[in-house]
Design goal:
It contains eleven helices and twelve strands. It is of the alpha/beta class. The protein folds into two domains: about 210 residues, 3-Layer(aba) Sandwich (Rossmann fold); about 90 residues, UDP-galactose 4-epimerase, domain 1. The strands form three sheets. A seven-stranded parallel β-sheet has the order 3-2-1-4-5-6-10, with helices on both faces. It has a three-stranded mixed β-sheet with strand order 7-9-11. Helix 3 packs parallel to helix 5, helix 5 runs parallel beside helix 6 and helix 7 runs parallel beside helix 9. It is globular.
């Protein structure tokens, strides 16, 4: 039986990937989490975990070299999905050093451990479309060869993640690929991201927990949305497709719109008759990656992968996720 290590299994993407691998493979799944990581996103897997099933939790922290080495040595994985990160761009402005250590040094620690203890493993390095940052219109749609122009400490850290992956492939012969995923969302999305924050605020307003006022940042940025369930499908397809080590792929959805258009669609789904919008200076980035439209033809041509879940369904499922979550909690903040 093949063994797979998912770093960041307790996150939105990691938890959905675990669901997919349970349904599509017979692999033994090892999910790396920090001892303090919230486990809400994998609560539905508790029976599988507690009954010594196919999902096992292993504890490690990207900022702690010894813990990473122990995880990789003990698991000896055949496949590694490296999803763990400090993934919140806004947070990176207030905690840049932690972001750099987790995402840049943490990736180096992981790959160095894989090189020593599991050199035959196939590895997925999860970079981000944020590496492209503020892209001039003449470079849109964004290709893999589009120059980097990172617009946040998070984006800078993902440039490091991206380049470290390429380095370990070229210098040490590790079998890996890098993905630059554009905006992906759906159930379990963290509330620090715009569309999830909007959905959460709508859900709170619907139960009367807050006034019907949605706090917003920059509404003019253009995003291309994919569903998280399509994202993990793409990651699985990439892991099980043969291509040269060091390959880099843009992956994303087909629906591009402004943040304002996305918000208006979410508001149209609400049971409330009237919702106001209020700008919040704390939600404005000093620099914004404001034109995120990808060219994903390279990945689609190589693998045949296509997104299958519509923007509308992603937003409906996201709002329903928050409706259920806020009704089951008495301590939710907007």
């Amino acid at each position: 039986m093949k063994k797979v290590l998912i770093t960041g299994i307790s996150g939105m993407v990691g938890s959905h990937l675990a669901d997919l691998l349970l349904s599509k493979t017979n692999w033994q799944i090892f999910g790396m989490a920090r001892w303090r990581s919230p486990l809400d996103n994998i609560a539905h897997l508790s029976k599988e975990i507690n009954n010594n099933g196919r999902v096992k939790l292993v504890y490690g922290d990207l900022s702690d070299d010894m813990s990473i080495r122990k995880v990789v040595r003990d698991v000896a994985p055949d496949y590694v999905f490296h999803l763990a990160a400090q993934s919140f761009p806004q947070t990176s402005f207030t905690a840049p050093i932690q972001t750099f250590d987790t995402n840049i040094s943490g990736t180096y620690r992981l790959l160095d451990s894989v090189y020593e203890f599991a050199p035959k493993a196939k590895i997925h390095i999860c970079s981000s479309s944020e590496v492209f940052g503020r892209v001039p219109k003449e470079f849109v749609p964004i290709k893999e060869i589009t120059p980097f122009h990172p617009a946040s400490p998070y984006a800078i850290s993902k440039v490091g993640t991206d380049l470290i992956g390429t380095f370990f492939s070229q210098a040490y012969g590790l079998n890996l690929f890098v993905t630059r995923m554009f905006t992906h969302t759906g159930p379990r999305r963290g509330d620090v991201f715009a569309e999830s924050s909007f959905a959460k605020q709508i859900a709170l307003a619907e139960i009367g927990a807050i006034p019907p006022i949605i706090k917003v940042g920059n509404l003019k940025s253009v995003r291309t949305f994919a569903d998280v369930r399509d994202a993990v499908s793409a990651y699985y397809v990439a892991m099980t497709t043969d291509f040269p080590s060091g390959s880099i792929f843009n992956i994303g959805g087909d629906h591009s719109c402004t943040v304002e258009e996305m918000l208006n669609f979410l508001i149209s789904l609400s049971t409330l008759k009237s919702i106001d919008i209020e700008p919040d200076i704390d939600r404005i980035r000093p620099i914004d990656a404001d034109l995120q439209i990808p060219d994903t033809s390279k990945f689609k041509t190589l693998t045949g992968w296509q997104p299958t879940i519509t923007f509308e369904k992603s937003m409906i499922d996201l709002l329903d996720y928050w409706r259920l979550k806020v009704r089951n909690s008495s301590a939710i903040q907007r």
